[in-house]
């Protein structure tokens, strides 16, 4: 015997929609600090992106490398980068990736931190001002 349809069936995945709506506990002081930090980071990303995109000395290759790395790198901590992986991901030759990274370092957009095996660790320059690249 089957149960009658009451019309109150739950759709698959409907429970996940509840998580998309913010609740009041999301606005606790610790979460507000996190939101402010994220807003500051977005502002820094906007400033650095504007500086890179308006600098006439930045080559197309350097812009491609920056665009790819800016999604992975942080202002406050270093991230290891293998130039060979970067070249493969962007479909570029390794010498061109190397030249692009050197240009971004010269412009102080990328800060080289240290070596970790074959990878070089970089971070974005948090001190980059809007008009300076």
Automatic annotation (TrEMBL):
Gene3D superfamilies for this protein: Winged helix-like DNA-binding domain superfamily/Winged helix DNA-binding domain
Biased composition (Polar residues): 1-11
Annotated keywords: Plasmid
UniProt cross-references to InterPro entries, sorted A to Z: WH-like_DNA-bd_sf, WH_DNA-bd_sf
Domain of life: Bacteria
SUPFAM superfamilies assigned: Winged helix' DNA-binding domain
Residue ranges, annotated region (Disordered): 1-28
Positions in coiled-coil regions: none
Spans traversing the lipid bilayer: none
Protein name as annotated: MarR family transcriptional regulator
Natural source organism: Azospirillum oryzae
Lineage: Bacteria, Pseudomonadati, Pseudomonadota, Alphaproteobacteria, Rhodospirillales
């Amino acid at each position: 015997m089957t149960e009658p349809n009451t019309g109150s069936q739950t759709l698959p995945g409907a429970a996940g929609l509840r998580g998309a709506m913010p609740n009041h506990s999301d606005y606790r002081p610790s979460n507000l600090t996190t939101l402010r930090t994220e807003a500051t980071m977005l502002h820094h990303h906007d400033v650095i992106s504007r500086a890179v995109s308006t600098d006439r000395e930045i080559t197309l290759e350097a812009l491609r490398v920056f665009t790819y790395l800016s999604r992975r790198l942080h202002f406050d901590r270093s991230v290891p980068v293998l130039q060979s992986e970067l070249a493969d991901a962007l479909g570029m030759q390794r010498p061109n990736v190397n030249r692009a990274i050197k240009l971004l370092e010269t412009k102080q957009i990328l800060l080289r931190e240290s070596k970790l095996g074959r990878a070089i660790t970089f971070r974005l320059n948090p001190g980059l001002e809007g008009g300076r690249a």
